Amino acid sequence: MSHRDDSVETIQREMTAFARRARATAARMHPELSLVSFTLLAHLEDQRGCRATDLAAHYLLDKSTVSRQVSALERLGFVERRVDPDDHRVQVLHLTAAGAEMLGNVTASRRVAFHERLADWDEADLDRFASYLLRYNAAQEAME
Question: In 48-96, which ranges are continuous DSSP H helix?
Fold first, then answer.
């Protein structure tokens, strides 16, 4: 195996471990919500609402998956449906006050955890890591 292959294998293994920890952390934050649920809530906040079909298209998820996630979020009082003022046939999903508060608490908690994990990194290492993550994600978006 080449050095490049070794490096790619390490990256894959560590990204998998990162994803596993993210799912476990999501479960600890709110036992009824998955990592996907938190991702959808963050998107709704960022977009100031959107349709369920837009969520499915953006995250390349099956509509039934999004429907189940949205139903759970509605049941918990974190998401509500509103009629689109431009097209009364369309329902737009929005965070409720409770959803925004819960998402804010989770975001703050995650930010603290990242600060703790990266506390002994110097500014140059943080800048490089941030730029590598941006580059990695941009490459993926360019492929889609």
Answer: 52-59, 63-75
